[in-house]
Amino acid sequence: MTAPRSEPVLVQLGARPEEAVQLVGPDARASYPADVRARLREDADIILARYPQARSALLPLLHLVQSEDGYLTPAGIEFCSDVLDLTGAEVTAVATFYSMYRREPTGNYRVGVCTNTLCAVMGGDAIMDALRDHLEIDHGGTTADGAITLEHIECNAACDFAPVMMVNWEFFDNRTPASARDLVDALRSGAQVTPTRGAPLCTFRETERILAGFADDRPGALESSGSAGEATLAGLRYAREHSMSAPEAVTGYPDDHPDLGAEAVAETVREKPAPAPSATVPPQPNTTETEPPTKGN
Predict the structure, then answer these.
(1) Full-model pTM
(2) Which among 80, 100, 147, 174 is most buried, taking Cβ atoms within 10 Å?
(3) Quick one: average pLDDT of 44-54?
(4) Correct CATH for 109-203 of 3.40.50.1220, 3.40.30.10, 3.40.50.620, 3.30.1340.10
């Protein structure tokens, strides 16, 4: 009896159709003019002086060229590879690994909506849908006027303020679809916008220059704003109100603390790595060469 033929399963390899993967685009610069290259080289020398090994400066240099073009271009890759004496493939491998480096032109304001679990259930997905409709962007991307680039972002460790948005990496907490629409409208109008925490916004390219390691001159940029929210501090407040504290730390293994009960010591060393097998298990003789295997085994 012939087994029935199963239908083939087609697995798509590589990037999704909507994913930007190429650094070469129709308007991307292949190289910098001499004056731009000279100016960037002066900035690059300042960055290089901070590192004992030149190649360690690659990440800030990628931010530097991104501040020039608004995204990574062949010109930026070529510049970084020349300055650091790396191949273009080495620079591109790093540049395409991190999501903070753009492969498409970016608007003046990079607007991210957190859609990880907590933010999503608190309204992040609804905010993303509302902004797509409001900005007339189907699958993320940049508005026709070049003002806003909209995208999903991963968790930014601000779950106590969910749902959270970020604009050029500055936090906007406890958003709703309505407040999100008001925010992007203010950005498109050119109004000065100040995040929930942090200094007034600057453009994406200006932000990239700051990330490259240059001075942040925005008023209040270096001031502490007390970023812990009520949800974050609830456990700490409860512990203080009930005079709770962590147990005194105990190091070592049970044999080191004969005065403590086995359960108490076990609790303190629960997270310690297990000793290497060679420290606890006697070595086994190599029986394959010295004696024949036992019959029946």
Answers:
(1) 0.70
(2) 80
(3) 94
(4) 3.40.30.10
